[in-house]
Design a protein that fits this description.
By secondary structure, the chain is α+β, with helices and mostly antiparallel strands. Helices cover about 20% and strands about 35% of the residues. The chain contains two helices and six strands, in the order αββαββββ. The protein has a six-stranded antiparallel β-sheet with strand order 1-2-6-5-4-3, with helices on one face.
Length: about 120
């Protein structure tokens, strides 16, 4: 007779653990700028952006603590988290907002950082 706990262990090791969900992009005190959905022929991308008065380094540190991962730095100076194949996050100075996907609502003069979170799904 096989005990249920043994079956769970076998299933877990056979199929692996589910990937942890990406951290909630709602940074404490941040204001949502917009939420958009883009449909392409092969892929849909849903994204949302937030602005905060906190500096980029503090925002990046928050998500590094929340996820246990380190952000990568791109050539343009923005910081990125690739949570998995479809969930992504970019963090960049609000002054560079027009260099990244953005919407009609802009960061205010006191907001220093923009958080852009996206999910892509294939058709």
């Amino acid at each position: 007779m096989v005990r249920p706990i043994a079956i769970c262990a076998l299933v877990s090791s056979a199929f692996g653990q589910a990937a942890p969900a990406p951290p909630d992009p709602h940074y404490p005190g941040a204001r949502q700028l917009c939420a958009e959905h883009v449909s392409g022929q092969d892929m849909h991308i849903s994204w949302e952006s937030y602005a905060t008065a906190d500096p980029v380094d503090r925002v990046v540190a928050h998500f590094q603590r929340a996820s246990g991962r380190t952000a990568t730095v791109r050539a343009d100076g923005s910081r990125h988290f690739d949570w998995d194949a479809v969930n992504k996050m970019s963090i960049y100075p609000a002054a560079r907002n027009d260099d990244f996907p953005n919407c009609d609502v802009k960061p205010s003069a006191r907001e220093r950082t923009v958080i852009l979170s996206s999910v892509g799904t294939r058709r």
